[in-house]
Amino acid sequence: MKDSYHLNTKLTGLIGHPIKHSYSPLIHNVAFQLKELDYIFLPFDVPTVNLKTALKGMIALGIKGFNITIPHKENITQYMNNVSEEASIIGAVNTVVNDLGKLNGYNTDVNGVYETLIPFKEEISGNEVSIVGAGGAARAVIYTLIRYFKPSTIYLINRTEQRAETLKNYFVDKMKYNYFKTRELFPPDLIDVFRNSKLIINATSVGMFPESDDTITSLNNSFTKGQIVFDLVYNPPLTQLLKTASSEGATVLDGLKMLVHQAAKSFEMWTGEEMPVEEVHKTLQLYIKG
Ligand code: NAP
């Protein structure tokens, strides 16, 4: 970490509540150091009641840009001067650029999903995929798949099926993609859906530390060889879901690459420089291993 900051040091950060478990300060400060940029990234714990005032403060202090996390990603869009196309369709902003007092909102989770899945584009296009979850992360996943990967069918699976149905209707309307099917998350009834999916994505928090033994399905026969299973959860990187899928021969992708790539896009917007993603990824892996 840099040991001196001065008048020219540019400030970036993260607004959320709570934020104490975020890896973003580590990711960005390591990247600033690797690139020898005179920037710093600080976490700001801001409850909803203070969000609007905090944004005014960000402008007043000339902060270059910041990330937004739970619970403000949706709520913050109303305070933006401009919202990008993807953030507008997804309905959530995770990155803000302060352009001389004008706040521009973006959603860089799209870049995280895109960079993680792009090596498998041919396998995904024209095939069935399953997405478990119907929250903010699922929205970024659905947008990216429809926009860049063109699957033949998207199964939207959620504990509360009504939320999946609402999400389906939303995307049919917004993106004119009509090939959704919705299901309740009840693993014994989903074996065939999962087995027939070329790609399965967990976009829920199931399996996240400290509930690391939990999984969206513990049924080994949900998975097959040649399948791709992507878990957005990044702590732990190797989730119970990925362990089970891997034991059946599936290719497994953890949430860390997405985390680093969504950060890389924010970094680029704030600094105009590319983040050294491989080195940052390795640093993060070492940090998590302890
Ligand atoms: P969210 O908006 O709170 O959505 C949570 C989703 O998880 C809902 O679909 C919810 O189902 C489901 N869920 C929660 N607990 C469950 C349980 N016990 N059993 C079954 N389903 C459950 O959260 P989010 O922002 O979408 O984030 C989801 C996950 O993605 C988190 O783990 C987050 O850390 C991760 N994420 C990772 C990255 C990355 O860069 N790797 C980026 C963004 C998010 P109901 O609708 O039934 O409540």
Question: Notable features of this structure?
Answer:
single chain; 290 residues; alpha/beta; six-stranded mixed β-sheet; six-stranded parallel β-sheet; 11 helices; globular; binds NADP nicotinamide-adenine-dinucleotide phosphate
Q: Approximately how much beta-strand content do the residues carry? A: 15-25%
Shape category:
globular
Return residue spans where pLDDT drops below 50 for at least 5 consecutive residues: none
Helix content: 25-40%
How many helical elements?
A: 11
Structural class: alpha/beta
The main pleated sheet reads as: 6 strands, mixed
How is this structure best described in words?
The chain contains eleven helices and twelve strands. By secondary structure, it is an alpha/beta fold. The strands form two sheets. Strands 2-1-3-5-6-4 form a six-stranded mixed β-sheet, with helices on both faces. Strand 5 and strand 6 form a beta hairpin. Helix 1 packs across helix 11, helix 4 crosses helix 6 and helix 4 crosses helix 10. The longest helix has 17 residues.
